[in-house]
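Kindly draft a polypeptide, keeping tokens residue-aligned:

***
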Amino acid sequence: MFEKSSRLKLRFYTLKGGLNTEDLWDLPLEMLDTLAKSINRQVKEAEEESFIKAKSPVDERAGLMLSIVKRVIEIKLFEKEAKATEVAKRAQKQHLLELLGQKDNEALSAKSADELRAMIKELD
């Protein structure tokens, strides 16, 4: 569908003006949602069944444009969720490392003075 979009030189019209397909990746999700709603209205208007007219190329373009915007939204939502999961994992790992450091300190504090001296001598 992206190949077809580039061959047709599709333009997506937003408040920022006419955008080509690759520009969609730079839009925030809210703006993509607004764009998808706008294109979806066009698609629904075109879907009104006519018994005497064939589907026009404009109708097919609107369907393709909606598919592209929906796919970009889908990918951006997935990436946003993956990033949030990664941040949470990183925070949990940092917390576990801090706890491990505390446990190591507790283990060292529990050693006798002679054991600590012996450890210091090993390091020299």
